[in-house]
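Trying the structure run again after the queue cleared.
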Amino acid sequence: MHHKLVCVVCLALSAATLSGQESISKITVLPSEPIAPGSCTTSTAGYLEIKGRTKMTKVEIGKFVDSSLREGYILTIYPETKRGIFVDKECIAASKASSHP
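Done. Tokens:
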């Protein structure tokens, strides 16, 4: 009985969302501990490139990720395509600074 009720509620919520009554534009998941702001000043996105190359080794990707995290970025890294690896670097410090007058 409980499982059927959960399924009905899920279906009702899905139908309400699909009908345009509610929409979620972004869900942010935060770690359980505070994140140090880092030294970044602005968010950016684009294809990962080193000295004109878009084909990266695992070591190069690892160094990029490590340095970006140390600078205070939250990274979203997409699977490699013909054009390369697309990366969205969100600067936590910049988003906090712009939200406080």
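The radius of gyration is 19 Å. Worth checking whether this holds up in the mutant runs.
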